[in-house]
Amino acid sequence: MIQTDICIIGAGPVGLFAVFEAGLLKMRCHLIDALPKIGGQLTEIYPRKPIYDIPGYPTILAEDLIKNLMEQIEPFKPSFTLGERVEKFVKNEDGSFNLTTSAGTEVSCKVVVIAGGLGCFEPRKPEIPQLEQYEGKGVTYMVINPETYRNKRVVLAGGGDSALDWTVFLADVAAELTLVHRSESFRGAPDSVEKVMELAKEKKIRLMLKSNINAIEGNGKLTGVSITDQHKSVQTIPTDYFIPLFGLSPKLGPLENWGLNLDKSAITVDTFDYSTSVPGVYAIGDINSYPGKLKLILCGFHEAALMAQSAYKVVYPNQKYSLKYTTVNGIQSF
Amino acid sequence: MDIINIYVEDFSGNRQHLEIPTEINLNLMEVLKASEYPVQGTCGGMALCATCHVEVLSGSEQLNPPQDQELDMLDTLPELTDNSRLACQIPIQENIDGIIVKVLTE
């Protein structure tokens, strides 16, 4: 079990900066994110977009802001659990918390900070009957470990960059690879499109354009997918894995059932310290709601600073704290 | 003040008439969000998240054609229709008067 002072749910910019503010107050942090990489929306949705309203940066690319934040929090040695979603939330009698992720990772902490943005990014699922029954039994929406597919038969669906990238990558790994795309052309990065077309020409992959997958087959485990082409003719391709790659969309997820006060899909907080209705649990950044709330990264940073002051009293109930400027004391790393 | 009319159908098929002044300088995603439709607009209108996916049931030819960024994003949607658009890329202007859109997000 991972033991920490603060468990931060969400490794976007606000979750990351919370590590800094907590670190100044000698609190250690562990971060959990449902996505396999840090950065949240900034990495997942708009890594190459410039942001213009971060104080001190006339303009900064989203991915660079994340890189800088990682550098800024490095002295405080945060630990990460990525690609896992917090499923279970238990408040113990002594006020501490136990969290359990989708992969069974357990975290014990004194404070929980929810910096979950718009919720978990969950894969968009195509409407195929029985698809969900086969999740984990051959159907998956994310390639986490490519080695899983070594010498296996794999069908990918989608036409975006991730479908193209994984096609190129898995072409050498899988025993047999099929890419199914609804349209006749790809709009992804020209490089990747060219590589995929080449692989198809060399018959290293099976490329099915203007086609859709509308049924899956199996006997408890996936055995094949049915593909309908533009002429409405249907063929079944035997496969071990089917990976639809249609991007991600945000959902609030399991934290809806943790007993926190909610307003639509946001967690209501007290603006004194961004605490939620459950003592010891804070919500900062886009996921919280209060009168006058602005969903800006810079507001999330401010919320993180105030949260840390209040969390300090939970983590160190018998100590007094007085604010010290980093310019005076520097950073005392762990 | 110029007012335009649009008709919005929700996921279960109920249709509502909205009157919108053009001078408010909003896009359709913002209007749908403000009208309490289940439209998140996660990316804030950059055509990067597709949480404002709509189907234009009538009047799609009146709209400005989609730009590359929007087409790229639409390509990632499993439930794409022939008249799919991202509402955030549809500014509230005279040219959209009378269109009928169906909200495809839940």
TrEMBL record, chain A:
<feature type="binding site">
    <location>
        <position position="86"/>
    </location>
    <ligand>
        <name>FAD</name>
    </ligand>
</feature>
<keyword id="KW-0274">FAD</keyword>
<feature type="binding site">
    <location>
        <position position="327"/>
    </location>
    <ligand>
        <name>FAD</name>
    </ligand>
</feature>
<dbReference type="InterPro" id="IPR036188">
    <property type="entry name" value="FAD/NAD-bd_sf"/>
</dbReference>
<keyword id="KW-0285">Flavoprotein</keyword>
<comment type="similarity">
    <text>Belongs to the ferredoxin--NADP reductase type 2 family.</text>
</comment>
<dbReference type="InterPro" id="IPR050097">
    <property type="entry name" value="Ferredoxin-NADP_redctase_2"/>
</dbReference>
<feature type="binding site">
    <location>
        <position position="286"/>
    </location>
    <ligand>
        <name>FAD</name>
    </ligand>
</feature>
<protein>
    <recommendedName>
        <fullName>Ferredoxin--NADP reductase</fullName>
        <ecNumber>1.18.1.2</ecNumber>
    </recommendedName>
</protein>
<dbReference type="Pfam" id="PF07992">
    <property type="entry name" value="Pyr_redox_2"/>
</dbReference>
<keyword id="KW-0521">NADP</keyword>
<feature type="binding site">
    <location>
        <position position="46"/>
    </location>
    <ligand>
        <name>FAD</name>
    </ligand>
</feature>
<dbReference type="InterPro" id="IPR022890">
    <property type="entry name" value="Fd--NADP_Rdtase_type_2"/>
</dbReference>
<feature type="binding site">
    <location>
        <position position="121"/>
    </location>
    <ligand>
        <name>FAD</name>
    </ligand>
</feature>
<keyword id="KW-0560">Oxidoreductase</keyword>
<feature type="binding site">
    <location>
        <position position="41"/>
    </location>
    <ligand>
        <name>FAD</name>
    </ligand>
</feature>
<comment type="subunit">
    <text>Homodimer.</text>
</comment>
<dbReference type="InterPro" id="IPR023753">
    <property type="entry name" value="FAD/NAD-binding_dom"/>
</dbReference>
<feature type="domain" description="FAD/NAD(P)-binding">
    <location>
        <begin position="5"/>
        <end position="291"/>
    </location>
</feature>
<feature type="binding site">
    <location>
        <position position="33"/>
    </location>
    <ligand>
        <name>FAD</name>
    </ligand>
</feature>
